[in-house]
Design a protein that fits this description.
By secondary structure, the chain is of the alpha/beta class. It contains 5 helices and 8 strands, in the order ββαββαβαβαββα.
């Protein structure tokens, strides 16, 4: 930028994007000073290098704001974990299945772990059947991303959501807005 550009001539682009042409570096710096702007090298590998007249501080600020906006809209995929036992009570199973459903609706992946203890380790088919049953129960919300596999005393399976995290967030926001609208309408009628 400015005096740090060490080439004899540059292809100059004006502040509004118009092509000025190939000019010596001294003339380009003079034009920058006259218009109270900075001379910034935008394509150093080109022959000759391309430089643009711009307000460098404003440019840095705008690019930082764009990056912040992009990060704000970015969705992070989270892996939630549910732990089960092979001899799980039906009610406990339904509760755990409810958690898995909630996580999948929110757009998160779910890692389901079955922990075996003692003699349960000799019956891995019990854990496999339990994981298969869970996968069948939630198949409308998610798909099996990694098949059940034995890992020491545990059996692990990962279920991924059909919906992306961003879609799930937008859907939840719309649902919340509709609920608030309905509540406001019922308050007015009362």
């Amino acid at each position: 930028m400015n005096d740090r550009i060490r080439v004899p001539e540059v292809r100059l682009v004006g502040p509004n994007g118009e092509q000025v042409g190939i000019v010596p570096i001294a003339k380009a710096l003079e034009l920058a000073r006259e218009s109270d702007l900075d001379l910034v090298e935008v394509a150093p590998t080109a022959r000759p290098p391309v430089a643009k007249l711009m307000d460098y501080g404003k440019f840095k600020y705008e690019s930082a704001m764009k990056a912040r906006e992009a990060r704000k809209n970015q969705a992070h995929t989270v892996i939630k974990e549910i732990k089960l036992r092979p001899k799980i009570d039906p009610h406990d199973y339904e509760t755990k299945k409810g958690h898995v459903v909630r996580f999948l609706k929110a757009g998160d992946k779910v890692k389901v772990t079955i922990m075996f203890r003692g003699r349960e380790q000799s019956r891995p088919e019990l854990g496999f059947r339990l994981l298969q049953r869970l996968a069948d129960d939630v198949e409308e919300l998610g798909f099996v991303e990694s098949r059940p596999k034995q890992d020491g005393r545990n059996m692990i399976m990962v279920i991924g959501p059909h919906k992306k995290k961003a879609e799930a967030k937008a859907e939840a926001k719309a649902e919340r807005a509709a609920r608030e609208e309905a509540a406001a309408a019922s308050d007015e009628s009362a």
